[in-house]
Amino acid sequence: MVNSCLNFWAKNKNILGQKHYLVLRKLQRGKQQMDLPRILFVNEAFFPHEGGAERRAYETIKRLDRKGFEVKVITNDFGERSELNGVDVDYITRMDERDYFDNGSRKIRGVLKFTSAVKRALKKYDDYDIYSFDEFPLLHAVKGAQQVPRRASKIFTWHEVLREFYNGRGGIWRLASRWEKKISDIYSHNIAVSNSIRSLLDSYYGKEDVTVIENGVDVSEYAGSGEEKEWGTVFYVGRIEPHKQLDKLIKYFRGQEKFKLEIVGSGSQISHLRKISRNDPNIQITGHLPRDELIERMKRAWVFVMPSSREGFSIASLEAMAAGLPVVTTTSRFNLAANEIIKEGYNGIILKDLSYLMDTLENLWSNEERWRYLSSNALSFSRSYDWSVITDKMADLFVSMWV
What we know:
The protein is of the alpha/beta class. Helices cover about 40% and strands about 20% of the residues.
């Protein structure tokens, strides 16, 4: 009977309103699931593909599934598929990563292909209650919103707000600036991963009603951090792209003997970095590592360095703190992590410029008391960002939208 009514509603959406539909859906699912909405996540890439947005999606979605939410992910297939028990991941395109990403940015042909695939998939998956879009590459969210059923809620998660960055580059980049504004207008719910990003949404687009749900870290993975540190090992993990400024970082480590630099990750610049660091025994570029090996290396490291000129929240910095590493970064107009989670003189050090890096490391080398103060605070700070806490915030938001 309920299923017949739902079929009738689907054919007569102008007759029956959203409230009728919600009642029928709750009856269909029964008491156990009546208060939990079905959620479709739209992500351009998904773990194990590297990136902060991918990590956030993976960690929160698998926890939402454990809480009893019915979740589905639609994403690109870049040759890396995730096995998540209970989570249905639909790879809606077949693209080589090189056909989509270009030096840390996106190729327009790949963006158009992904956007078209999203529109087709949303026509097929039209029976979800909440449609959650992740930020990049923007166009998929502009066009995808048009396919979301009227009765459903639309969420957009902001990892960065880049209006000034886009406008400063000119040309086709101004399109992205317009897409960003469009998204701020058409989405009924906006999530910002930091207070800094919420402030930018308010300042640029007049969005006052924005929910802040930060990124997180699995604190349990780093148990025992702070012990048996390899004094002098400076660590970086993340994407290897131009805006990360790793080529500049390498120049400061080349030829010196006291400090060791480890760079973990993959991206368009990895061959270039290996070339400029060739034959230097104190610089190691590993490429991608399995999660367990990555964590062990990070736990043994001494300091985490984040030289990026553009950063949203920086999950990698938070994970480094959970491993007991003080974070050293630089001030930059688009480095929001320096305004949000890295606290000067408390859990890290914020430099005016990378040219101050080696002097800063020398100071920490000779001042173990200061290093231990920063390390202890970093550990304490990270515990309030455990993924379980972050997922609870997300689940509360979803339920409040559904009730």
